[in-house]
């Protein structure tokens, strides 16, 4: 009986203090922004508004200063990397060597589009959150056609993420939602107040609050502290059980499974 009580206390203690990741490696990087790794192990960063891809000793760069600041980069498909230049309402797609393959001026669309959210979807399509209409749609850039999927949102989008099949967002009230390619919207619950969010799955996300990282379970409505060594950092990414922390000194990669 006493042994069971001690085990119960230990389990409670572990649930409070959080989850300890395993240090994997470190990479020296001087950049303005670290974007993350792709599926092939290359990592990406932005310095002076220039996108850089590095893999081993190889390095590639893409710059297009006439389009203004890079607002978003989608790395889901390393053969079709999406750059969003919000100031000029333009999306650029580059290949695995950062050669430009497609330049999409959304001002040329038959429907007015002023997006604040862009992501790569399946096929020749992009997820778009149109700030003019406050609706989510799929834009077929080969046909230059926008298919509206949702009714107007009640609240503004505070943060978002996407993959080939889903667009996921949190509004200014902290409510989380997910929309599929057919326009079906699912409410996921309320997320804690945070400064930065990384979407892991439909029910899990990692968020930053005051230089601490937490894994949050939307179903159980519970946060778990992720115990990293860095006391301050610029940003983080999470992909395929690798948590990458970017500081002034470079990237530190941890192995951790976020359920």
Describe this structure in words.
The protein is mainly beta and 259 residues long. 6% of the residues lie in helices and 50% in strands. It has a four-stranded antiparallel sheet with strand order 1-24-23-22, with no helix packed on it. A four-stranded antiparallel sheet has the order 2-3-4-5, with no helix packed on it. Strand 10 and strand 11 form a beta hairpin. The chain starts with a helix and ends with a strand.
Distance between the termini: 31 Å
Overall pLDDT score: 91
Q: What structural class do helix, strand and pairing data support? A: mainly beta
Hey, roughly how much beta strand do the residues contain? Answer: over 45%
Largest pleated sheet: 4 strands, antiparallel
Number of helices: 1
| Sequence of strands across the biggest β-sheet | 1-24-23-22
Instruction: Write the H/E string, N to C.
Output: HEEEEEEEEEEEEEEEEEEEEEEEE
Q: Helix fraction?
A: under 10%
The geometry reads as globular
Low-confidence blocks of residues: 1-17
Let me know the number of strands.
24
Taking all Cα atoms into account, the compactness measure Rg is: 20 Å
């Amino acid at each position: 009986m006493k042994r069971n009580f001690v085990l119960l206390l230990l389990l409670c203690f572990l649930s409070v203090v959080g989850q300890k990741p395993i240090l994997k490696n470190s990479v020296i990087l001087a950049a303005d922004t670290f974007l993350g790794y792709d599926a092939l192990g290359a990592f990406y960063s932005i310095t002076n508004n220039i996108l850089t891809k590095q893999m081993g000793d190889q390095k590639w760069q893409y710059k297009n200063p006439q389009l203004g600041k890079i607002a978003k980069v989608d790395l889901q498909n390393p053969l079709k990397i999406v750059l969003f230049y919000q100031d000029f309402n333009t999306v650029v797609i580059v290949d695995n060597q950062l050669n430009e393959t497609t330049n999409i001026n959304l001002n040329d669309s038959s429907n007015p589009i002023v997006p604040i959210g862009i992501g790569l979807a399946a096929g020749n399509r992009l997820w778009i959150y149109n700030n003019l209409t406050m609706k989510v749609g799929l834009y077929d850039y080969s046909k230059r056609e926008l298919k509206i999927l949702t009714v107007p949102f009640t609240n503004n989008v505070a943060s978002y993420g996407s993959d080939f099949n889903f667009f996921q967002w949190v509004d200014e009230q902290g409510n989380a939602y997910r929309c599929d390619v057919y326009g079906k919207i699912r409410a996921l619950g309320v997320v804690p107040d945070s400064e930065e969010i990384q979407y892991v799955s439909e029910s899990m996300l990692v968020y930053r609050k005051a230089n601490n990282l937490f894994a949050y379970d939307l179903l159980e409505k519970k946060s778990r502290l992720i115990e990293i060594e860095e006391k301050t950092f610029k940003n983080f990414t999470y992909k395929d059980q690798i948590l990458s922390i970017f500081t002034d000194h470079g990237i530190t990669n941890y192995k951790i499974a976020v359920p």
